[in-house]
Amino acid sequence: MTDQQHQSKEPDDILTNRQGHPVTNNQSVRTVGNRGPTTLENYDFLEKITHFDRERTPERVVHARGAGAHGYFQSYGTVNGEPISKYTRAKVFTNTNVQTPVFVRFSTVVHGGHSPETLRDPRGFAVKFYTEDGNWDLVGNNLKIFFIRDPLKFPDMVHSFHPDPVTNVQDPERMFDFLCQSPESAHMVTFLFSPWGIPANYRQMQGSGVHAYKWVNEEGNAVLVKYHWEPVQGIKNLTQKEADQIQMKDFNHATLDLYEAIDRSDYPEWELYVQLMEDGEHAELNFDPLDPTKLWYKEDYPWHKVGKMMLNKNPENYFTEVEQAAFGTGVLVDGLDFSDDKLLQGRTFSYSDTQRYRVGSNYLQLPINRPRKHVATNQEGGQMDFRTDFGSRQNPHVNYEPSLIGGLKEAVNPGKEHEPYVEGNVKREKISRENNFEQAGRTYRKFSDWERDELISNLVAALSSCRKEIQDRMVDIFANCDEDYGKRVAAGLQTAGAEKDTKMEAAVKQAEQLGHPSDPY
Ligand code: HEM
């Protein structure tokens, strides 16, 4: 019997419970008399309230606040005038006739699911490409570099940025306590406290894969590649004052901006650029090409336009699509590969691990996460297994491989395997070319005057509440990046210290002069 036969009897908009029973009274629980007590066989009420009690799944441990949209990506098929297949055999790039469907989730990082979108924070830019070879996730940020380069430090870094475990309030002192002992973060801190730390919205924001990945061609040869998204709408960042003004009235402005633009058919677009570098250690460089705290400068490694993405459909349901979306850096397709970047490898474990916990062991069966192609796997069971993609169609009894009596068979490798050679002692050590300050100094000098002024003023505001030892260490870091940078932060902190005492006295006086509230009770 099909759904259709049953559905014909009732109009679609009649309220039912999850068992399909029509609900005839949705206003009153069953009680003895109209004053209670309530009775325990209230099946409809119990089903309704117990489902409500379970409405929330754990939010993402980072990037909890987000907005998403559907669209497509189309490759131009060339890199710098050459066929893209010279570098990668990934069909999402070589096949220019296909519009690959995508789902994008933008996010802020530190605070919870309904926190203001005006906060100074990196922004997440995660793209799921539903390619003909299965899914590819490019899980990036708006900024092109990151705070740290070793994944072992990530939980400590996030704890220092998250609210204090006692007061539940974010505290710049905890944050700078960590950062002043992680000098590799100097470059990211320089971007974050400049206007680049508050993009005006998601549409006018860049994106970047941050890490070096690899492209692999038909012969199994690889090049290092970095990905960057450039908004066709242009880039817009906010000063702290502008962000404060928006936040006074609206703390959902970026979500609404994206939703409303798509709703009025003003579809946002981004062009995808890549930077390529020959695979190898590159001893001639004063930084390690796999270091995610470093930029590859445009003049040395030009940006090549390789495709365009358009977002043209809003989600139909926030929870099922945006909240349950699960992106991961391990989700690559043939022709795309990892580099040896340690941070990237640490991330690759973390994402699917957290998603099995956050969404559930069968998170890849959900419509937003499943590939838009046939899936044939011998994986079995687990909570909420609702497989529509059964293993072997020929012989469903065989859910293992290899088998002489049927079942699924291994695929043929579409090209020559990329087989990088590695050797070395196993050890716990920092990379040898740390060079923590030079690029941060250059970024400081490249900012426009107003951006530099903002940077200093934002850093001084945040550092003012930190103890002297932390301030001094941060000033040292900035001075190492650029003498003027260090001097200006130090001078700002001195002035702010003096002003703080005067302001405090004035605030106490003003409080004494104000009246008390009335007692309307
Ligand atoms: C989200 C871990 C570094 C971008 C997450 C989540 C975890 C995580 C556990 C939550 C995922 C979920 O619940 O679905 C890590 C670790 C890192 C790291 C361990 C370093 C060792 C980075 C870097 C970037 C980044 C360098 C940017 C290049 C993102 C984005 C999301 C995210 C965009 C949100 C994805 C979404 O919208 O669902 N990260 N992360 N992370 N991370 Fe990372």
TrEMBL record:
Domain Catalase core, residue spans: 16-409
Basic and acidic residues bias: start-end ranges: 1-12
GO CC, alphabetical: cytoplasm
Names of the cofactor(s): heme
Domain of life: Bacteria
Binding site for heme: Y351
Annotated InterPro entries: Catalase, Catalase_AS, Catalase_clade1/3, Catalase_core, Catalase_haem_BS, Catalase_immune_responsive, Catalase_sf
Active site: H63, N141
SUPFAM superfamilies: Heme-dependent catalase-like
Assigned protein family: Belongs to the catalase family.
Function: Decomposes hydrogen peroxide into water and oxygen; serves to protect cells from the toxic effects of hydrogen peroxide.
Name by which UniProt lists this protein: Catalase
Organism annotation: Evansella caseinilytica
Species lineage: Bacteria, Bacillati, Bacillota, Bacilli, Bacillales
